[in-house]
């Protein structure tokens, strides 16, 4: 009897914590819930100035420029959060005019940005489209973004280069409804632009010769800038940090106090003393040196750092034209039709 009572009490407390009030008659009724004061903002470990750092404890999207239209909505929700109990929620449908996005403006002349956040993609749209994570803009041009491709679940980096959209695979088959940690470090410098990405604490990509036209950044955005891109996106513990002038070395370690798990990209277990830098997972080989974890899931050959295959855009179909180089990136070129469907 005591065990049953204890389980019932635990259930009542859990429901109350999630924003529901349970009456003595057993009927659940909606309660007014506030996130105010719970929890504190995340600590910003990055070297520049904090543009925004929030766990949405205020119950609002303060610090962001929010835009919605049609059936799109943007609000703070208790339905899912990385740090209890609140997180941002962006909802869009395939209806015409459905848009939901939130952005942070950056100081003029911004030459370096760190974007750090936890994401839970709860719903996706049609095959051939995608769901965005962070998107970086210079003026009105989206220059770099990370997205999850619908149907396959693959997480991909997209770059707006002078040749068109170029793609680099990051993580395969990321399922819906799970929280993941994404950190992006972007240093815009034309054809010598640096981009480093960590996924769930592990380096997933680094390249200091990404070719774009921009030399400064103006905005970081969550959500899509166009309509009919169906998605349910939860985001939490967001940090946007930027500066001009001196920039951090790239590749480099993930600044503390961010997590530093090691092992394979889809394995969060294990820990070693190896330094976690771009192109490796920190798992040592017999020599004691950290070994690489290339994107072999994309059926590409293994390469050591600086010995990657570069892929140039093709005009149609799904063919890939390749040439060996040392640009430090593995780019996939998709058809112009696919580009159009994902814009």
Key structural traits:
343 residues; disordered C terminus; seven-stranded antiparallel sheet; 21 strands; eight-stranded antiparallel sheet; Jelly Rolls; mainly beta
Helix and strand layout, with pairings?
Layout: H1 2-17, E1 20-22, E2 28-30, E3 49-54, E4 65-69, E5 73-77, E6 87-92, E7 99-110, E8 112-123, E9 130-138, E10 141-149, E11 155-161, E12 164-171, E13 179-187, E14 193-199, E15 202-210, E16 217-223, E17 231-243, E18 280-284, E19 290-292, E20 309-312, E21 321-324, H2 336-342
Antiparallel strand pairs: 1-2, 3-17, 4-7, 5-6, 6-17, 7-16, 8-13, 8-17, 9-10, 9-16, 10-11, 11-12, 13-14, 14-15, 18-19, 20-21
Write a brief caption for the model.
The protein has helices spanning 2-17, 336-342; strands at 20-22, 28-30, 49-54, 65-69, 73-77, 87-92, 99-110, 112-123, 130-138, 141-149, 155-161, 164-171, 179-187, 193-199, 202-210, 217-223, 231-243, 280-284, 290-292, 309-312, 321-324. The protein is mainly beta.
- Average residue pLDDT: 74
Shape: globular
Top-tier CATH class of the domain at 49-251? Mainly Beta
Please state the second-level CATH architecture of the domain at 49-251: Sandwich
CATH fold-level label of the domain at 49-251: Jelly Rolls
How many extended strands?
21
| Biggest sheet statistics | 8 strands, antiparallel
Which series of helices and strands comes N to C?
HEEEEEEEEEEEEEEEEEEEEEH
Unreliable runs, pLDDT <50, ≥5 residues?
A: 1-32, 258-341
Characterise the protein shown here:
Among the domains are: 1-32, no CATH class; 49-251, Jelly Rolls (Sandwich). Helix content is 7%, strand content 43%. The protein has helices at 2-17, 336-342; strands at residues 20-22, 28-30, 49-54, 65-69, 73-77, 87-92, 99-110, 112-123, 130-138, 141-149, 155-161, 164-171, 179-187, 193-199, 202-210, 217-223, 231-243, 280-284, 290-292, 309-312, 321-324. Strands 3, 5, 6, 8, 13, 14, 15 and 17 form an 8-stranded antiparallel beta sheet that branches. A 7-stranded antiparallel beta sheet has the order 4-7-16-9-10-11-12, with no helix packed on it. A hairpin with a 5-residue loop joins β10 (141-149) and β11. The protein is globular, with a radius of gyration of 21 Å.
């Amino acid at each position: 009897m005591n065990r049953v009572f204890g389980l019932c009490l635990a259930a009542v407390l859990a429901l109350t914590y999630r924003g529901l009030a349970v009456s003595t008659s057993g009927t659940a009724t909606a309660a007014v819930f506030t996130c105010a004061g719970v929890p504190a903002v995340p600590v910003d470990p990055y070297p520049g100035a904090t543009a925004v750092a929030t766990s949405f404890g205020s119950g609002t999207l303060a610090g962001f420029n929010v835009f919605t239209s049609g059936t799109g909505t943007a609000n703070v929700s208790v339905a899912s959060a990385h740090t209890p109990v609140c997180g941002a929620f962006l909802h869009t449908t395939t209806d015409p005019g459905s848009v939901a996005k939130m952005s942070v403006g950056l100081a003029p002349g911004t030459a370096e940005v760190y974007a750090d956040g936890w994401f839970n993609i709860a719903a996706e749209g049609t095959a051939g489209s995608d769901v965005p994570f962070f998107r970086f803009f210079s003026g009105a041009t989206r220059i770099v973004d990370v997205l999850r491709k619908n149907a396959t679940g693959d997480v991909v980096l997209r770059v707006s280069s002078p040749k068109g959209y170029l793609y680099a695979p990051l993580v395969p088959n990321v399922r819906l409804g799970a929280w993941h940690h994404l950190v992006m470090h972007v240093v815009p410098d034309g054809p010598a632009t640096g981009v480093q990405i960590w996924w769930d604490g592990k380096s997933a990509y680094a390249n200091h010769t990404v070719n774009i036209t921009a030399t400064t950044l103006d905005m970081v955005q969550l959500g899509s800038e166009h309509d009919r891109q169906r998605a349910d996106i939860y985001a939490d513990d967001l940090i946007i940090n930027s500066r001009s002038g001196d920039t951090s070395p790239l590749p480099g370690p993930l600044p503390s106090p961010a997590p530093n798990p090691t092992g394979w990209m889809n394995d969060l277990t294990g820990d070693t003393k190896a330094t976690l830098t771009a192109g490796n997972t920190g798992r040592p080989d017999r020599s004691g040196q950290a070994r690489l974890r290339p994107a072999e899931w994309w059926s590409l050959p293994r390469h050591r750092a600086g010995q990657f295959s570069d892929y140039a855009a093709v005009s149609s179909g799904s063919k890939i034209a390749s040439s060996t180089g040392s640009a430090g990136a593995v780019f996939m070129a998709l058809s112009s039709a696919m580009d159009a469907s994902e814009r």
